[in-house]
């Protein structure tokens, strides 16, 4: 099925390749992808809640906690639980965007489809499976030191605190989930040097859209539905910051020209924020920034 949003963005950017985008992506999991999934320690997933707000979150565990369970199925031995904003939402199937990412090697793979919770695990029926280039991924390695354990704590608000604003202002990575009715959900990665995200006013964020694979799955979904979810990870302390709101693409080339490397800018308006402390069982140590990051 052609994605009208992707086609609209591709036309605007001068891309005319047939079947370039989600319409040209296979649903089957090839053996190399199955092997990659089996090695992963973390996966980022995203979906819309019952009110239509879109959220992104991360699940982590030992190697093997996620695996291919057939040609078009993925099983994850984890599922979001309260206080995660996606906790308890998958009693029945719903669209899911998933990104398996390996910061140590800068490899990533997207798996989109529908998911449901079965007991304490996730079952995903795949509709799109494909790998992405390593651009803008900062290298991090898992710290094998056992992290402190305890119940996860959360706070919810309609505004960012000063600490949360500082967290975002110094972030080098975040994840974004988008969706479009009848076309599914998608979760993607965004990275750059610290400061690549600008905070604008009360709950507003702006980030540059850098050169990528020109499939425009994220921007294509936003063309049809501006609702999206952002996820910021505190890699060293196991905290997560979940934002839901709306985003729009600013196509004014004069504004983008003021930001190094930006092809266009994306403006986000916050509706709600959930911070979860102690929800991630892994910690990561920073190694180096991507050589592709604009100065």
Briefly say what this structure is.
The chain is mainly β. It has 5 helices and 17 strands. Strands 9, 10, 11, 12, 13, 14, 15 and 16 form an 8-stranded antiparallel β-sheet that branches. Strands 2-1-5-6-7-4-3 form a 7-stranded antiparallel β-sheet. A two-stranded antiparallel ribbon has the order 8-17.
What does this structure look like?
The chain has 295 residues and is mainly β. The chain has one domain (4-288): Electron Transport, Fmn-binding Protein, Chain A (Pnp Oxidase, Chain A, Roll), CATH 2.30.110.10. The protein contains five helices and 17 strands. It has helices at residues 4-13, 31-39, 162-169, 217-224, 253-256; strands spanning 42-48, 54-60, 66-68, 73-76, 94-102, 107-118, 121-132, 139-143, 153-157, 173-180, 184-191, 198-200, 204-209, 227-234, 239-250, 264-277, 283-288. Strands 9, 10, 11, 12, 13, 14, 15 and 16 form an eight-stranded antiparallel β-sheet that branches. Strands 2-1-5-6-7-4-3 form a seven-stranded antiparallel β-sheet. Strands 8-17 form a two-stranded antiparallel ribbon. It is globular and about 50 Å long.
